[in-house]
Amino acid sequence: MKSTGIVRRIDDLGRIVIPKEIRKTLKIKENESLEIFINNDEIILKKFSNMNDMDKIFKDYINVLKDITGNNVIITDREKIIACPENKNTDLLNKEISEYLDNILNSRNSVLSNDMKNINLTQDINVKNNYYILPMIANSDILGLLIMLSNKEISDVDKISLNIVNKLLINYME
């Protein structure tokens, strides 16, 4: 465990302030949920994600979409890539998403590109593909992104398929 040298008092309501520097470093935003763990005499705070422990479900949906559309799909949470096709696992899994994807996430809008452009998935991984990016939003909270990558034009059927999976995943997580 890394010491920060910062000490805070608990107020009369049992609250403690997490310093701005730490929130910025860990990308903890206002109104974001934290999960609380106890380990002996330690209190551990961890950013909460509805997507924890859903690896098997994500892989199943990625495989079904690959079978239906022939396209690869990547799933992110708000910070990193959490599921990707088997052949891309070592390169992408658990890597922080690029600034481009973060901007799409924060805009809450879907993005379609059928121009075979480069897309920055992470800070150091670019791919040249057509793509359809769909934010996953539940109860006005941004959960992550679904990213469909294709060497062919992304069709309306491809987009509908990704939208269906988006709705199913959101319903599962709620």
Structural class: alpha+beta
Arithmetic mean pLDDT: 88
Task: Tell me the helix content.
Answer: 25-40%
Number of strands: 7
Radius of gyration: 18 Å
| Most strands sheet | 5 strands, antiparallel
Q: H/E series, N to C? A: HEEHEEHHEEEH
Q: Which structural traits does this protein have?
A:
174 residues, alpha+beta, 7 strands, 30% helix, 30% strand, elongated
Summarize the structure.
The chain is of the alpha+beta class and 174 residues long. The protein has helices at residues 20-25, 55-69, 89-92, 99-107, 156-173; strands at residues 34-39, 42-47, 72-76, 81-83, 111-120, 126-138, 141-150. The chain has a 5-stranded antiparallel β-sheet, with helices on both faces. Strands 1-2 form a two-stranded antiparallel ribbon.
What does it look like?
The chain is α+β, with helices and mostly antiparallel strands. It has five helices and seven strands; from the N terminus they run H-E-E-H-E-E-H-H-E-E-E-H. It has a five-stranded antiparallel beta sheet, sandwiched between helices. The protein has a two-stranded antiparallel sheet with strand order 1-2. Helix 2 runs antiparallel to helix 5 (156-173). It is elongated, with a radius of gyration of 18 Å. The two termini are 33 Å apart.
Architecture blueprint of SSEs:
Layout (H helix, E strand, L loop, with lengths): L19 H6 L8 E6 L2 E6 L7 H15 L2 E5 L4 E3 L5 H4 L6 H9 L3 E10 L5 E13 L2 E10 L5 H18 L1
Antiparallel strand pairs: 1-2, 3-4, 3-7, 5-6, 6-7
